[in-house]
Amino acid sequence: MPSFDIVSEVDKQEIRNAVDQVNKEVSTRFDFKGSDARVEQTEYELYVYADDEFKLSQVTDILVTKFTKREIDVRCIEHGNVEKISGNKVRRKTTVKTGVESDLAKKIIKLLKDNKLKVQASIQGEVVRVTGAKRDVLQEAIQLVKTSVTEQPLQFRNFRD
User: Fold this and answer.
1) What is the reported pLDDT for 61?
2) For the whole model, what pTM was predicted?
3) Residue 2: CB partners within 8 Å, gap ≥ 6?
4) For residues 39-76, b (16+ Cβ closer than 10 Å) or e, as one string?
5) What is the DSSP letter of 27?
6) Could you list the mean pLDDT of each consecutive 10-residue stretch along the chain, which spans 161 residues?
7) Which of 11, 56, 65, 134 has its CA 20 to 30 A from that of 3?
8) Under 8 Å CB-to-CB from 145, ≥6 apart: which residues?
9) pLDDT for res 158
10) Do residues 128 and 122 lie in contact, with contact meaning Cβ atoms separated by under 8 Å?
11) How many other CB atoms are there within 10 angstroms of residue 108's CB atom?
12) How many other C-beta atoms can be found within 10 angstroms of the C-beta atom of residue 137?
């Protein structure tokens, strides 16, 4: 039976490249002279540091711009709350979401069932596997999910006949 997987992935190397570009731009910009503004990365978590909230928002804007230029979908970014560190220095935790969360996976399965497509969908960890009798039905399912689910970037992988 033909099948495909619905996943949400972000290339970790592209994230690292974008963070390096942000740090390089911040170190060379005149308005950040003498500032401790930077972005640190641990896996899929980014920590944005700055001297005050205004500079923090500027660094975040640069980060979003670099993500866009490196073709990383900015819908996968989730910004945390601003924390005061010491003095006026602030930090914000930014998480890059990967994998299809269970709530979104349930929403996708409900969407496919409600539209009465002849497919079966199952949750397998952070992946939703969709199987159907014909390739055309699976392509309809892909189009339906692409147009209906907009809160997180999704990729359709592992298409098998």
Assistant:
1) 93
2) 0.82
3) 131, 132, 133, 134, 135, 138, 159, 160, 161
4) bebeeeebebbbbeeebbebbbebbbebbeeeebbeeb
5) H
6) 88 92 92 88 91 90 93 90 87 91 89 88 89 88 88 86 78
7) 11
8) 6, 108, 111, 112, 154, 156
9) 85
10) yes
11) 22
12) 16
Residue 125 tokens read as 């960890």
DSSP structure string for 40-88? EEETTEEEEEESSHHHHHHHHHHHHHHHHHTT--GGGEEEEEEEE-STT
**DSSP alpha helix (H) spans, 7-48:** 12-28
What angle separates helix 53-69 from helix 12-28, to the nearest 10 degrees? 130
Tokens matching residue 60 = 């975040």
Q: What is the pLDDT of residue 16?
A: 94
CB 157 within 8 A of CB 4: yes
Nearest-angstrom CA–CA distance, 131 and 4: 7
